[in-house]
Amino acid sequence: MLSRIVITILVYSIAGWLLCNIDPDKEYIWYSGIWHGLFFVPNLIRSWFTDAIYKAETYTAAYNFFYWVFCIISVLGFLFGGGYRKRDY
Q: Degrees (nearest 5) of the Cα angle 67, 60, 42?
């Protein structure tokens, strides 16, 4: 069970690094807020161990709105989603 959680976190962190690396010098707009919000958990975990950031430093108001909406969805999905339920028919 614990090894499955660790492997999942590693895979998500590598995916976040490959697909959603945030540049601190770039200004981001609304669709980046969606993308960065979806990858909040992997980027947060990466920020604990590296110098990666989990939210852009320069952004628009729309980015901030969409970031928080999708960040909440991402965290709820990470905490409560992905459970495997075996059904007997």
A: 30
Alpha-carbon distance 85 to 62, whole Å?
A: 37
Beta-carbon contacts of 17 under 8 Å, excluding residues fewer than 6 positions away, are: 42, 46, 52
pLDDT tens-digit readout, 63-89: 999 999 999 998 888 788 766 666 666
Backbone phi, then psi, for 88, in 5-degree steps? -100, 120
Tokens 């490959």, located at residue? 18
Instruction: Give Cα 10 to chain centroid, integer Å.
Output: 12
Distance CA 69, CA 63 (A): 10
Position 25 pLDDT exceeds 70: yes
What string of DSSP letters covers 28-85? E-HHHHHHHHHTHHHHHHHHHHSS--SS-SEE-HHHHHHHHHHHHHHHHHHHHS----
